[in-house]
Design a protein that fits this description.
Layout: E1 6-11, H1 20-34, E2 38-45, E3 49-53, E4 56-62, H2 78-88, E5 92-96, H3 104-111, E6 115-119, H4 123-129, H5 134-151, E7 154-157, H6 160-168, E8 174-176, H7 193-199, E9 205-210, H8 220-231, E10 236-241, H9 247-257, E11 261-265, H10 270-279, E12 282-285, H11 294-301, E13 306-309, H12 314-318, E14 323-325, H13 329-341, H14 344-355, H15 360-370
Helix pairs in contact: 1-15, 4-5, 8-13, 11-14
Length: 386
């Protein structure tokens, strides 16, 4: 097809049970394909596979498991990856890992292939969640970001929050491209009263957290908030959709503390996940290093308001349809109470209206613009068209 570009995308830290990044890769790939381009995604896996999917060609290369991450794998072997890139002969390169795959920016320069790095997290934010002091995490992040900005033609950030650490170092090749939400697949009509009744009685508030259960996501804050609400006399239960290395510890804490929390693990059934999101009263998003928060946006598309970490990008995304809270259980509990005091119809309509500002078509358009694809060649289809 005239004007069609082969856009090769490399990503690490993608697992069968991973959420936001996997969703973003799928939706962007499908959007590129719908616009008439040829997306090719290369990710690590248990074994080599090469298949055509709705998001284009997907190649998995055998990659080792990262200990303690709950299933994440990484692409290894620069010669192998470079040989594959030579074979694929991309017109554009898009990389979603600015640590172990940063060298691909130099490959792209030598091959004269325009390349972008997508910043899916703030480097200093992740380091702080792992306990690195703020001054050290900032210096380390700045050093990493300087090298990243110099290596790639463009750095794509999904929010102003994510962009700040690059603005701080004076990078001039940063562009903003928001992510999106499937507004047709996530909708308030998915609310299921029978499903809700399985988890909460009529007088109980149903809280939900959809998150990877790992240190940087701070899932324990959700249990802190639940404990605080119960201590105050608020009848509430928590449903957790997601898995990760902290799951056993969190389950043990809930069990020993008598907290009404149900851990569902990774919910692969997207219809069931949507019904859970639509049936909850409030969604909790405690991750302080989130640069967008796709799961929270999906909940809002289902009509469920969100309480998010004030340290993250989520306040920028949720706007007045949700509330930001300090990274403490008491603050999250306060925000939950405030949302529950709003009339139910009002808070649900506000959540959906805010989510409607983030369709995937606009996201695909912005990402293709970051790749310098001429507007006439983008041809993004309307929302809901596969």
């Amino acid at each position: 097809m005239s004007g069609s570009l082969r856009i090769v995308r490399l990503a690490n830290f993608v697992a069968p049970a991973s959420g936001g990044l996997r969703t973003a890769l799928r939706e962007l790939g499908a959007g590129y394909r719908a616009a008439g381009h040829e997306p090719v995604l290369v990710v690590p896996g248990e074994r080599h596979t090469d298949r055509e999917t709705e998001q284009g060609r997907v190649i998995t290369l055998p990659g080792p498991l990262l200990p303690g991450t709950g299933g994440y794998r990484v692409l290894t072997g620069r010669r192998r990856i470079a040989a594959l890139l030579e074979e694929l002969a991309p017109d554009r390169l898009e990389v979603s890992d600015r640590t172990t795959l940063r060298w691909t920016g130099r490959w792209a320069r030598r091959a004269r292939v325009p390349a972008v790095m997508v910043s899916h997290e703030t480097a200093d934010g992740v380091l702080r969640t792992w306990g690195v002091p703020e001054n050290l995490s900032r210096r380390a992040a700045d050093a990493l970001n300087v090298r990243t900005a110099h290596t790639y033609a463009r750095v794509v950030c999904t929010t102003e929050f994510a962009e700040r650490e690059f603005v701080r170092i004076g990078a001039r090749n940063v562009v903003r491209a928001p992510l999106g939400v499937d507004l047709a697949g996530r909708h308030p009509a998915l609310r299921d009263e029978d499903l809700r009744a399985r988890h909460a009685r009529g007088d109980e508030a149903l809280l939900m957290m959809c998150s990877r259960l790992s240190v940087e996501k701070r899932p324990g804050t959700a249990l802190d908030a639940l404990e605080t609400l119960l201590r105050r006399g608020r009848r509430a239960v928590l449903v957790v959709a997601g898995d990760g290395p902290l799951r056993a510890r969190l389950e043990q804490r809930a069990r020993e503390g008598g907290l009404p929390a149900a851990f569902l693990g990774h919910v692969s059934d997207r219809a069931l996940l949507g019904a859970l999101q639509a049936s909850a009263d409030v969604c909790l998003a405690p991750g302080p290093a989130e640069t967008f928060g796709l799961a929270a946006l999906e909940a809002m598309a289902c009509g469920t308001p969100v309480v998010a970490s004030a340290s993250s990008a989520l306040p920028e995304v949720i706007g007045s349809a949700g509330l930001a809270a300090a990274d403490r259980g008491e603050a999250f509990a306060d925000a939950v109470e405030s949302l529950l005091h709003r009339p139910e119809r009002e808070r649900r309509e506000a959540a959906r209206a805010r989510a409607e500002c983030f369709g995937w078509a606009a996201s695909v358009e912005a990402f293709l613009a970051a790749h310098d694809v001429p507007a006439a060649a983008r041809r993004v289809l309307p929302e809901g068209v596969a």
